[in-house]
């Protein structure tokens, strides 16, 4: 029912060529779609920007209270069994980490440097997102998606060469690219991988990370803006934060993760009347009952090592100030 409401509203605004913001939760049970001209003050965003930021005067601080390695290992082992049984080949395991910081969500939003940023607050939800991962971009009847899979500490010697040569990371990335090629094939034609495994540097607070991405594109019909709802709901949730095969993997993760992703790993974006741009809502902090939680995760394959995946989960809990 909610999915149909999302589809209808996106199609309506797209048909009218009305500029609007959309914020969709991971499982499409929650959404926010509003004209850009009517956005309340509690909702702010920046899309595809690399803005200069002011330096904060307070000491940079972030305390993490993650799940224990033992608890993580139990979940990890269940996923390995599912892989052995042929039920999945790649699963993006996530968890929420309680954090403490002297910054407010507003301060983090204003002082964070990230390609995609969202500050969202209403009566039910209060969160920020500073994502480096574009989901889909539509320009000139062409849709492109940019899956991000593979992370390494940039200070490691020969980090770029190591991440690109890593067989586990290569397999994981290839599976996601193949999944998203199939997703774009549902809604478009002439699907092609334009750029396979390029590397970006990401500011991760007290360190820099290298992230591996690819670009996949397809052609759309001239009236694609009239079908925005059909296009987006057909390819959600994003393959990079679920796994493959997508449907079965989502079912497994729902049982294993044991918490609600909610808006985390959903998407947000804008349609400006001509083009669309969007991101996957990773690098995500929410406030619940005066407590802050940071949600993060990473892909698990048969070649994954639990200790390294746990370390990656914690590495992704940061403030890029």
From TrEMBL:
UniProt protein name: Aminodeoxychorismate synthase component I
Q: Which InterPro entries match?
A: ADC_synthase, Anth_synth_I-like, Chorismate_C
What biological processes does GO assign it?
L-tryptophan biosynthetic process
Cite a single Pfam family from the UniProt record: Chorismate_bind
User: Which organism does this record belong to?
Assistant: Arcobacter cloacae
A single GO molecular function term of this UniProt record: 4-amino-4-deoxychorismate synthase activity
């Amino acid at each position: 029912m909610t999915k149909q409401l999302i589809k209808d509203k996106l199609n309506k605004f797209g048909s009218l060529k009305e500029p609007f913001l959309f914020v969709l939760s991971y499982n499409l049970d929650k959404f926010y779609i509003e004209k850009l001209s009517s956005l309340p003050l509690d909702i702010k965003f920046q899309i595809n920007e690399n803005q200069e930021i002011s330096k904060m005067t307070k000491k940079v601080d972030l305390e993490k209270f993650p799940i224990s390695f033992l608890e993580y290992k139990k979940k990890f082992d269940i996923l390995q069994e599912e892989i052995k049984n042929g039920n999945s080949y790649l699963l993006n395991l996530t968890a929420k980490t309680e954090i403490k910081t002297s910054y407010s969500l507003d301060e983090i939003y204003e002082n964070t440097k990230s390609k995609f940023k969202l500050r969202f607050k209403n009566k039910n939800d209060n969160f920020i997102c500073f994502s480096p991962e574009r989901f889909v971009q539509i320009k000139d009847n062409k849709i492109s998606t940019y899956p991000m899979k593979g992370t390494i500490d940039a200070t490691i010697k020969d980090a770029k060469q190591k991440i690109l040569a890593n067989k586990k990371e290569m397999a994981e990335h290839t599976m996601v690219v193949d999944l998203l090629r199939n997703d774009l094939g549902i809604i478009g034609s002439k699907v092609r991988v334009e750029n396979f495994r390029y590397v970006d540097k990401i500011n991760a607070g007290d360190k820099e990370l290298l992230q591996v991405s690819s670009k996949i594109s397809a052609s759309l019909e001239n009236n694609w803006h009239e079908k925005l709802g059909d296009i987006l709901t057909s390819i959600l949730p994003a393959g990079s934060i679920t796994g493959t095969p997508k449907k079965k993997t989502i079912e497994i993760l729902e049982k294993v993760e044991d918490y609600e992703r909610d808006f985390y790993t959903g998407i947000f974006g804008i349609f400006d009347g001509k083009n669309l741009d969007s991101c996957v809502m990773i690098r995500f902090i929410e406030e619940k009952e005066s407590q802050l939680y940071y949600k993060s995760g990473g892909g698990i394959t048969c070649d994954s090592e639990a200790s390294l995946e746990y370390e990656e989960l914690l590495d992704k809990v940061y403030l890029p100030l």
